[in-house]
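A student in our group prepared the protein record below, which I am reviewing. I have pasted the whole thing underneath without changing anything:
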Amino acid sequence: MLLDDPQEWPTFSRPLAPADKAPADPATCAWDSHVVLEGMHCAACALTIEDALRRVPGVLQADVSAATRRARVVWQPSQVQPSQWMEAVHKAGYRAMPAMDAFVREQRQRESRRALWRWLVAGFCMMQVMMYAWPAYVAQPGDLTGEMEQLLRWASWVITLPMVVFSCGPFFASALRDVRLRRVSMDLPVALGMAITFVVSTAGTFDPAGIFGREVYYDSLTMFVFFLLTGRWLELRLRDCTAGALEAVMNRLPDSVERRAADGSFVRVATRRVVVGDTIRVLPGEAFPADGRITLGNTHADESLLTGESTPVARAEGSVVTAGSYNLQAPVEVHVEGTGGQTRFAQIVALMESASLQKPRLAQLADRIARPFLLAVLVAAGLAAVYWWPSDPGHALMVAVAVLIVTCPCALSLATPVAMLTAAGTLARHGVLVRNLQGLEALARVDTVVFDKTGTLTRDGMALRAVRTASGWNAEETLSLAASLARHSMHPASRAVVAAATASDGRWGVAGLQEDAGLGLVAMVCDTRNAVQPARKVRLGSAHHAGVAADDASTALQVVLSEQHADGTVSELARFDLVEDLRLEAPAVVAALEQGGVAVQLLSGDRMGAVQRVAAQAGIAQAAGECTPQGKLAALQALQAAGHQVAMVGDGLNDGPVLAGAHVSFAFGRAVPLAQSQADFVVLGDSLALVPQTVLLARRTLRVVRQNLWWAAGYNALCVPLAVVGWMPAWLAGLGMALSSLLVVLNAARLARDLPPLPGMQEMLRKEEGALSPSSVLSASSALQPSLDLSKTTLEPV
């Protein structure tokens, strides 16, 4: 009943309608829910849960990840309720829990403690059984009497029994569930192996003179179970430390927060109960649960999730704070201005959840062969038992057990997703969001990187250097007119014009504004101070877009304000010269890419002179300017037609077509609308060095994936024949199975280290520190001052 309450849905779901168009009635739109799954162990389990969910009427989509044990369910509330499709998961033999609920972490801890207890019991039983089995291994003929040997067998049986009931219980329960539902998962062959070994040994204990009385296998059984549980427990711990980094970020918000009540006191409430307009108190060490503005207090905040920068940021009274950042220093009171899906943190979480459930092509291949492989294992074990039965029935069954155990496909199903998710978690900690896991595989094969210029190779901000006006206009008027259009755009050039203009005086009324990506703005503008004067059609953008001649002698970025008359003629009103600074790390980034065998090109919509200047400073040999978005896309497609694997790096604001058209793409800049970005990678921070570092990590990730796949395939190719011919006992098969999965996860864990360093980056950082010193800033200001055209405009210092 709680899950079916629409007020609870936002805690683990979000409506698929855009935030600004969300219907008032939540039953009229589809919902996207994320749940954590309990009881699954392999790719076959993931496919079983997907099938169970997709059979429920009203479930539109279901994706399950074996590596993260999470599921994404898209459902229509008019046809199905959350409790109904969660019940379908339960009937399939598993348990689904809302991914954002507070008890999920406690459930994980309980599961880890139970796994530890099962492992401890198995270890104790193994040591005792080995102690009873040791005399039979070292005794010479005649040393042990029949009564003593039988007594040791009975002691081993008694010690093994609690291990079979308690430590092996989950395997038998899962296998019975599979048999009841007529399906195959990884636990079925493992449970068969355990059951056969225990039954054969029990028969030999109760009937020493029977066909199975020649030998008992309690030592093999206990060793196998102990090794299997060791591998499972270590795998669980390693998975939480590697791929679990994504979940740690997604669960960053606190479960509760102190909210001011009507009487002025603060009462702790659930975070989901906080709404816009509330005043909350955030204590040191707590994460800010919502976007807002500090109304009382001063502190420092850790915004590394949002920017990729680990340095704390000072936040004084009146400063804006963002959801997901940590309060580090002192308690502060915050007026809430944005909650839930309105926050940038929610957009980040949405991208990470989507990425964590994606299946790269190699992982999809492993999932497809998981079930046929398990069926082949059962057939191979049966054939091996039939072959060996005439010579020794007990040995025949133990050969079948070895085949059942050693050919577990768990390592194969984990080989790709664990490595990919570990790399995605490492990138997320450094300020790079992976929207598409398949992009890591594509990025590892890239041989050409194409950069945009403005806001990418150059800093996101610009400054107005000079204003040149037509006769009859002055700088203040043209700046006010241009700013009235520019306020509706997020382009760096537009923001520079708005920043240089004085506060909006409300003189110009704007109607019918349109923005052409990469070209500029056009709108009908009327002068509110002169009602007699008719509205005029005004353009703000590049010289080409404005329909005027470009000033080839100038190296500055030029934005032209022009008026288009009724007869089709165009007159220039003003020309704004903007300066943009090359990022200090850009030359080192270009050099690092070229050193790694990646060619670098520059495509920009700016004038050729400015583009060539930036290309020369960055060390880029191939550069093209005056490119429209369609021109950039055509140039990109020409590179692809020539056989190149191309990555595009843009600011994410006006490069949508070319970002979508590249093999893999980066959206660079904090102004990127995350929910609308077309890029495979979103760089949240302000460091261009993250691009080559991501390329290096993607290559390392693909190497790890190949190593994991080769290991999983080679292990099965070597061990299956050994088990079939009877040269691999059950305990050794169990050890090999546990080690195979463990080695795959351990190999992937190497990707959780820091991003690969770039050569020359330390020297670049030292130069940047020198460039930002007070003396260098004063020197730069003095050098730039004469270039300002003070006769035509008066600008505030930037």
In short: DSSP finds 26 helices and 27 strands in the chain.
